[in-house]
Every structure is written in C-alpha cells, then in structure tokens.
Amino acid sequence: MERENAWKKYGEDDIRQMEILCENYKSFMTRAKTERECVRLIMEIARGSGYITLDEARAKGKKLAAGDCVMADYMGKSLALFQIGEEPFEKGMNILGAHMDSPRLDLKQNPLYEDSGLALLDTHYYGGIKKYQWVAMPLSMHGVVIRRDGSKLEVCIGEDPSDPVFVITDLLIHLASDQMDKKGRFVVEGEDLNLLVGNRPAVEEKESTDIAEAADDTAADGAAVLSQADGAAENKDNKGKKDNKGNIDKKDKDAVRDNILAILKDMYDIEEEDFVSAELEIVPAGPARDCGIDRSMVMAYGQDDRICVYTSLDAMMKAEKLKKTCACIFVDKEEIGSVGATGMHSRFFENTLAEVMELAGQYTEIGLRRALANSRMLSSDVSAGFDPNYPSVFEKKNTAFLGRGVVFNKYNGARGKSGSNDASAEYMGAVRRIMNDNNVTWQTAEIGKVDKGGGGTIAYIMGNYGMEVIDCGIAVLNMHAPFEISSKADIYEGRKCYSAFLKDA
Ligand code: MN
Ligand code: MN
Fold first, then answer.
1. Which end of the chain has fewer beta carbons closer than 10 Å to its terminal beta carbon, N or C?
2. Is 407:497 a contact under the CB 8 Å cutoff?
3. 292 assigned to some structural domain
4. Nearest ligand by distance to the CA of 99
5. In CATH, what number is assigned to the domain containing residue 110?
6. Quick one: 182 and 197 in the same domain?
7. Going by C-beta distance under 8 Å and a sequence separation of 6 or more, which residues neighbour residue 341?
8. pLDDT confidence of 456, banded at 50, 70, 90?
9. Cα-Cα-Cα-Cα dihedral of 25, 55, 279, 344, to 10°?
C-alpha cells in the first residue's frame, strides 16, 4: 500500500496557509537554537495568546476554569503548557510532547588554550553526531555564563551578519591521505573538536601617568589590547625589547589566549574561571532557509526536534473550546537519554500537573493518577525520511517519504524493538480515525531496515503512567547533521495532525 502525496491535494488556500506557517517556522528556528532560547521564545509567543505562568496564576489566587491557559518552565530548559478543558482532569488529557534539545558541541568547563599562535576552546559533543560533519563551517556560540558574583550573562555570538563566527578546522586534502583511509568514526575524533577563536596576541601595556608618553610607548612597545593593537603591528622592530624579566617565551606562548581573556573581560565582564559555571553551546551559524528550486523544503539546524515543537505549539495556540484539558510538554535532554531534572524522566510534568489541578480545584492524589493514566499522547519526534542516495538501509514499504505527511511510528527501538513504546492497535486505530476524519495526510514508518540501527524517544517514559502513547512526527533528511531537511507539506500536515488530536482525541 502506497501513501498519498500531500502536495497533490493542495489548493491555493492550503498553499497560502502552508507558506505562512513555514515562514513563521523558519523565523522560530533562526531565533531559537538552544533549549533555553526555545523556552524563552515559546513563552513570549504563548503570552501573546493569553497564557500566564503558573506562578502568576497562583499569586493572583486565580481559580482555573475551562478555556484558561497556563504555562510553567523548569530551570529555563523545559516547559509545559496547559489549556483547561470542559471535562474534569481525571477523564484524561490530550498531550503533545516533543524535545527542544538538539545535537551540538558544548564547551568544556576549562576550555581555553593556545597552541602555535591560535586560541582554541575545547568542546565535548552532545548527542549523536558524525563528528566529521562539524568541521570547516561557520559556527555560533549560544548560552549563559554565571559570573563569580552570581550575575548571569546571556551569550549569542555569530548569528547577526555583523558578528564574527567560529570554526573547527579540517585537514587540507593535500595532506589528508592517511586521514582519508580512516574509518568514518575516526576521521575526526571527539577530542579534536576544538573551536578556533583567535590569532592575535596581546602585548602588555606600559604603565605611565603621562598620556603623551604612554601613547608613544604604546606604539614603541607594540602594546595594548584591543583598541590600540593596530599600533603594535606597525612596530615590529621594537617588539620583544620589553620584558627584561626573562619572561618573553612564556608571554609569547600565551599572548593570543591572554588577548581573548582581555576581550572577554572588556566586552562581557567575564573571567576565565567563569567558564566553569557556564553552558555555552556551539551550533551551526546562520538562519533557517528555503531549500530547492521549487522552495518546497526547509533547511535548518535543530529540526530534530524543534519541527515538532513548533508545529505542536502552533496547534496549541490556535486550539479553543476544548473538551479535554490539553497540554504541550517541551523537554530537554532527549538526545542524551531524557535524564536529569529537565529531561522527560524528571517529575517536572507530574508535579506541574498537580499544581494546575490544585488551581482548578481538582487536585487529589487519586485524581492526579487518573488524569495521567487516562491521558492520550502523541510523542512527537522526527522520523528518518527515505534518502535515494542511501536506499540500502531502508525498507521502502515501511519508510517515511518527504511530502507524504505526518509519520506514525507504532514502535521504534533497536535489536527487536528493544527500548520501544509499542503503541496498542486500539490506540493506533483511534488515532487513524482522527487523522482521516480531519483530512490529515499521514504515513507509517520504522527507522530503517530491521537491525540496521534504530532510535528512541520520550514515548516509553510517559507510557510508564499507563497512558496511551504513540510516536508521531515529521520526516527529515540527514537527521543530526548540522543542517537538516524537511518538506513544507509535512510541516503543514504535522500542524494539522496536532490540531486534530487536541480537538478530537
Ligand atoms: Mn529527536
Ligand atoms: Mn535526535
């Protein structure tokens, strides 16, 4: 059985709506490249649709009733949104879940060093990546730094066209004959993912109270970090004359690194030790863009899984007059096993639901358990789209194709469905009816041929409550590469799928 191609059914109105959705999606993807940036942007969007935070609702002593919308973030990295329905919580909710974290490179805690006149930052990759894909391309730095005094600095360098970018160098082909003979996993190794951040040495500024003399000396000694460094370059003859303490070698060795530290101090008021209390993520620089002569696709960093985050969010923002309470859960840490306080394994969602039920005057311990067990969920995550360049790993009857709509994975996992939440036939049947009744184009798939690999999602974790869960999502090409590809038709069908589910499940 072959599934229909969504593109073929669209009239002008569909195309117009799809374009609006995809423009908004691209703008979201350009602005939100980390889980923290996602939380911030989603909360901003949700506020525009009338959502208030749980804390605000509690402070106002607000009693939540049908139609009310509340949200709660956890540590700025996970987020839950609720729209209260007419039926009591214990009848169950309709839940959309997706993850906001994406594969990337994180700076190590002690990252900065200098080697051969270049300043570099050491990284530790996050999630599953082909390391050779991350070299020789423009990279940006996003995240937070907590300074010694506890103040927080938000960092985003490399996205504005006037910003500098960073890079991990690759070996020139002329000298790569040994490298090219290596197995793929060893072509570029994890410890070699060092981010190039500088080449310009600092030269020590001479102390003087006389301004004119200082300026002269600055030029003569080739001194001054930053603003006066141009003068230094013109005075090579006098370089090295300074430093009669016998420290020339040491200074030369660390001068580029010292200059980077001076710039960080000057521009951001951070010092080297501040890296230990930072979360700085290195991601591909540049905006999400249309892909293809026909502009039918989107190319962007982090579509796994923000493509499901954005389409779920858009459906949630447009939902109204809901019978059941609906929730969106956007989580962190899926790419490393959903662990930690902000991952799906955390009690964050359960605790937040208890708070929401309390504010709605419906909290009891048994009521909370019933609400969770009676819920239905789409665990939304990207699926592997069929790639004609690599047909050997796919079984075509059970593979997702770009343009054929939203994808349902009854199960995934590896080595005989291991680690999979295998959705029940009854639930798949119910979901299938909802999709058909709402004219959503959908397909079913597995990730590749049996025993070729596999993957996991957050589905099984919510399954632990006894609720119905199925994996659902949008197909992408080159998943986990710096830039991933999706079809605009699938984005549109994904949003329709989530709207239909919130309304009818
Ligand atoms: Mn994913
Ligand atoms: Mn992934």
1. N
2. no
3. no
4. 1
5. 2.30.250.10
6. yes
7. 74, 75, 348
8. confident
9. -70
209: burial class by Cβ within 10 Å (0-12, 13-18, 19+)? exposed
Q: Summarize pLDDT for 369-416 with one digit per residue, the tens.
A: 999 999 999 999 999 999 999 999 999 999 999 999 999 999 987 888
304 Cα: distance to centroid of ligand 2 (angstroms): 6
Residue 322 CA to residue 499 CA, distance in Å, equals 11
Tell how far the Cα of 125 is from the centroid of ligand 2, in angstroms.
13
Give the pair of three-digit tokens for residue 294.
């026909």
- Residue 221 within any structural domain of the chain: no
Name the strand (E) or helix (H) holding 290: strand 289-291
Which ligand number lies closest to the CA of residue 98?
Answer: 1
The whole-model pTM stands at 0.91
Domain boundaries, position 460: 6-102+301-504
Instruction: Please name the residues in contact with 117: beta carbons below 8 A apart, sequence gap of 6 or more.
Output: 199, 201, 256
The answer to which of 122-126, 217-221, 372-376, 441-445 has the lowest mean pLDDT is 217-221
pLDDT tens-digit series, residues 317-363: 999 999 999 999 999 999 999 999 999 999 999 999 999 999 999 99
- The number of folded domains in the chain is 2
- How close is the Cα of 473 to the center of ligand 1, in Å? 9
Residue 222 one-letter amino acid: G
Instruction: Give, for 471, the enclosing helix (H) or strand (E).
Output: strand 468-473
